[in-house]
Amino acid sequence: MSNEYIPLVVTVQECAEMTHLPMFAIRRWICEGRFPVIRSGRRIFINMDKFREFLVSGTGEGTVSPNGPIPEAIRFKK
Q1: Region class of 27: left (phi > 0), else alpha (psi between -120 and 50), else beta
Q2: H/E element holding 9?
C-alpha cells in the first residue's frame, strides 16, 4: 500500500454543503471556467483542493483575500 495522496472529490451539492455556498454560485463559476472540474457524463465533480485554491485566490466574486482569514461561512467542515 502506497502513501500516495488522493484528493477529496465531491459533487456540486456536496461542495455547497461543505462550504455553505449556494449551488447556483458554484454552478455559475463552473460554467465560467473559474476552476477545473471533472465531468463524467452529466455529472460534475469538484476537486476540493482546487476549489479552495480558487476561493482563496480572490479571483471570483465573493472570495476572500489570500492575506486574510477564511470566513466561518466558507470553512470546510471537519
Answers
A1: alpha
A2: strand 9-11
The single residue listed with the C-alpha cell 477564511 is 70
Taking CA 16 as the corner, what is the angle to CA 10 and CA 17, rounded to the nearest 5 degrees? 90
pLDDT, mean of residues 39-57: 92
3-state SS, residue 77? coil
Q: 3-state DSSP call for residue 39? A: strand
- Pick the more confident residue, 4 or 61: 4
How far is residue 12's CA from residue 39's CA, in Å, rounded to a whole number?
11
**Cα–Cα dist 75/19, whole Å:** 6
